[in-house]
Hints:
By secondary structure, the protein is of the alpha+beta class. The protein has helices at residues 23-39, 45-52, 57-69, 87-90, and strands at 5-6, 9-13, 73-75, 83-85, 93-98, 113-119, 130-133, 149-154, 163-168, 171-179, 186-190, 199-202, 208-220, 226-229.
Amino acid sequence: MSNKSRARLTGQPTGGSTAQLTHRQQQILDLIRRHIRETGYPPTRAEIAEAFGFRSVNAAVDHLKALERQGVITLQPGASRGIRLLEQVEDTALLPVIGRVAAGSPILAEEHVEDRYAVDPSLFRPRADYLLRVQGASMRDAGILDGDLLAVHRCQEARNGQIVVVRIDDEVTVKRFRRHARWPYRVQLLPENPDFQPIAVDLRRQPLVVEGLGVGVLRLTATGSCSSSNC
């Protein structure tokens, strides 16, 4: 872990103009952000309606107009993808905070989202996609403590030595990744605490899914401020 640096983070759940959004409006805003990040352009009204199971495009339009009134987007009439995030919203990502993950369900399923935090995206490289609330002390010596928020970049591959979020038999854990050079089907998940034992995985017999890379840690102090460090 690198030396601690001051986080440009509120240290509190998202506020400002987004604080007045309904749960559905926040979901739609998150969808717009994700679509722009992954494709480079915003979704159409029809794509939003399909994503949320609306019976008509008009329902999506109504939510978009509400977001425009809240001052977080602007709409361009007559353009199917005429949605633009305002500058102050683009500069800050709203990262979901993931708590306990239910067996068999996607890690970013809505029922796992405890909260959302406004985070400066320049804090982490590569960019963080979500925050995972750490449970336990197995990564203590890497500076990842019980209750910390681990910033995670979504990916499906890992290199030796990287701190990873992995799923084994529907259990999610944070460990350091090591694959055997001669027998690549043998993987060890290494704790950073001598009180814990490594987890040995034989990929021929036991599935292992990499959910993402740990790219940093956020920690709320007793005063409510927040510090960060990079993995």
